Amino acid sequence: MIQTIGSSSIAVALALTLYGVVAAVVGVRRRRPELLRSAEAVAYTNFGLLSLATLAMVYALVTHDFSVSYVAQVGSRSTPLFITIISLWSALEGSILFWGWVLAAYTAAAVYLNRERHGSLVPYALTILLGVGAFFYLLLVGPANPFGTRWPVPADGPGPNPLLQNHILMAVHPPLLYLGYVGMTVPFAFAIGALLSGRLDDTWIRTTRRWTVAAWTFLTLAIVAGMWWSYEVLGWGGYWAWDPVENASFMPWLTATAFLHSVMVQERRGMLKVWNLSLIIATFLLTILGTFLTRSGIVSSVHAFTAGSIGYYFLAFIAAILVFSLVVLAGRSQELRSAGNLDGVASRETVFLLNNLLLSAFTFTVLLGTLYPLVAEALRGVKVSVGAPFYNRMTLPLCVALLFLMGVGPALPWRSASRETLRRQLLPPLAAAVLVAVASVAFGVRQVYAVLAFAFGAFALVANLREYGTGVRARMRAHAEGPLTALRHLVAANPRRYGGYVAHIGVIAMAIGIAASSTFRMERDATLRSGETVEVPGGRFALRFDELWALDEPQRFVVGAYMTVLREGREIGRLDPRLNFYRGNDQPIATPAVRTRPDLDIYVNLMAFERDGSSATFRILTEPLVFWIWLGGGIIGLGAAIALWPGRRRRAALMTDPAIPAGKGGER
C-alpha cells in the first residue's frame, strides 16, 4: 500500500510536470491565460503529491515496513524514533525524494507570490522550475526509486550510517543544505526566464533578490553546521578538510556571494548584466555538480553516498543545462551590453569588481583541486590526491585579500572618492590593522598569513563598525534621538545595507577563529591510569582520568571516560569522551568531549582502553577561538535576516504602487 501511494504520487507528478512545461510555453507564446493557469495549478498540485510521497516514506520508516526497499536499506527496529525519521535523507533514494519535495515547495511558493506580476517573465521561469523538477521526478521513478519492493521481507535492517546517528547536527545540516542548494533554482529560473522573455532590465533581480539571499543564508548555515558536525563527531579536532563533498557545497556559496555583491553594481550603475547572469547560472550548475559528486559514488568521503548509475543522469543534465544556458545567453548578448563605465579606481564599483575576481579565482581553484583527481583517474588510470597543502597554498592569499576588500568596500562611495575621503575613511581602519599586526608579532605569531588575517580582520571590523557609527551620529544630530533609537531607525530604513555589514562582521569573526585555531593548535597523546593527571597542551589546564564507564543502548554499546578539568589544582569542569560501537559496524565511532569557551577549546578524544578499566589512551588538543567560528556563523545568519526584512521605503512603495495588487507583496 505504501509503495503504491508513494510511487503513484511521484509518477503522476512527473506526468503533470511534463504537461505543465508545455502548457506554460504554449500559454505565454500564444497568449492563452487558461493554459498559464493550468501550469500554475501543476505547481501547487505537485507540492501536494510530493508531500504525500514524503509522508508515506516517513510512515514506512516509523512503522518499520521493511517491504519498502529504502526502509530495508536504512531502517532498524533498534534505531531511536527521531533518528529513524531523519534517516529520510541518510541515503541516496531518500535524499532525492527530500530534494524533490523541497523543490516542489519552492516552485509552488515562487509561483504563488508572483502569479500576477511581470507579464511573460513568470511563465518562462515556471517552465524552468518545472523542467528541473521533471529531472528529479524522473530519477525518483527510475534509478533512485525509494519505493521499490524488497522480497523476501527482512525481519530487521542495518539502520542508517553510524556517523549520521552520532550527533544532533545531522538533523540540521542536510535540510539546511537542501534549502540552500534547491533555493538557487529560483533565481536561476527567473534569470533564464528573463533571457527567454526579453525582460532584460533589473526586474528579475528585484523579483528574486530575497530568494537569493535566503538560499545563500541556508547554504551558509549548512556549511557552518557541517563544519561543526565534523568538529564534534569525526574526532580529528578539525572542522574543514577540503574534502571533495565539502568543496561541493563551498563552490556555489562562493559564486552566490560574488553575485550578491556584483548585482548591486547592476542595480546602481546598469553594469555587469552578462556577468550577473553568468554567475547565477554557474551557481545553479555548481549545486547540481555538488549533488552529482555526493550521490554518484565517484568520490570517497564520509559525506558521500554509494556508487550507482544515477551519476550518468546528473552528467547528462549538467551538460544539457550548460549548453542551453550558454545558447540563450549568447542569443541575447547584444541586448545585454552595459552603458555604464567606471568613473574612478577608488570607488565601490572597483572594489566589487575585485571582490568578484577573487571569488571567481577562489571558485576555480577549488573546482580544479576537486575535479583534477577524477579527470586524471578517468583519462590516465592513475590515482592522484589533492590535499589541504594545495588548497591552503592557493587560497590563503585570496582569503586575506578578501578580508581587506571587506573593509575597503563599505568605506568607499559609488563612482569616485576624493583623496580627502580616502584619508578620512581608511585611516582609522589602517591604524587598527597596524596595531593588531604589531601585537600579533609581539605575541609570537610568525606565520605571515596569520598576521595578515588578524590585521585585515581588524581593518575590516573597524571599517564596518564605523559605518554604523557614522549613520547613528547623523541620525542623532538630525532627529535628536538616543543612540539605540537612532540605530534601530537606521537599520529599519535600509536593512539590506546594514544587514550586509552585520554579515561582514560574522565573516570576520569566523576568519579570526579559523586563523587563531589553525595557528595556535596544540595536541598530545597520553595513556593514563585511573586517578592520574596530565597537563593540557599550553600549560593552563590539567585533566584527571577518573574512571571508565559503559552503557548498553538498543542501537549501540557505549564506552566512556569520566575526566575532571583542573586549573591550578581546582576542579572547574567535567568531560566524558566516548567510543560508540554500533551493531553491525566493525569500527567504533568516537564522540569527542569538548569544553568550549570564548578563548579556548579543550578537545579530548578517547582512543583506546583496557577492558578492565584500569587505563585508557587519550588525544588532547587545545584550539583557541574556535567558539568564534560558530558565533560568526550565527552573526552571518542574523545579518541575512536583517537584510531580508523589508525596509521602510520598500514597505511604503508596496502600499502605494498600483502595479502591485494588494496583499501580493513586492520583492520576494
Question: How would you describe this structure to a colleague?
Answer:
A hairpin with a 3-residue loop joins strand 3 and strand 4. Strands 2, 3, 4, 5, 6 and 7 form a 6-stranded antiparallel beta sheet that branches. Strands 1-10-9-8 form a 4-stranded antiparallel beta sheet, with helices on one face. It has 21 helices and 10 strands. With 668 residues, it is an alpha+beta fold. The chain is globular. It has 4 domains: 160 residues; 181 residues; 153 residues, no CATH class; 106 residues.
Distance between the termini: 40 Å
Q: What does the average pLDDT come to?
A: 89
Main sheet overview: 6 strands, antiparallel
- Oligomeric state as shown: single chain
The strand count comes to: 10
List keywords for this structure.
6-stranded antiparallel beta sheet; alpha+beta; 21 helices; 11% strand; 4-stranded antiparallel beta sheet; 668 residues
Summarize the structure.
This protein is α+β, with helices and mostly antiparallel strands.
In terms of topology, how is this protein built?
Blueprint: H1 2-29, H2 33-62, H3 69-74, H4 81-86, H5 92-113, H6 121-141, H7 162-165, H8 173-183, H9 185-197, H10 203-233, H11 244-269, H12 273-295, H13 310-331, H14 348-380, H15 388-411, H16 419-442, H17 448-479, H18 483-493, H19 495-520, E1 522-529, E2 533-535, E3 542-552, E4 556-567, E5 570-575, E6 578-582, E7 589-591, E8 593-596, E9 600-609, E10 615-624, H20 627-644, H21 648-656
Antiparallel strand pairs: 1-10, 2-3, 3-4, 4-5, 4-6, 6-7, 8-9, 9-10
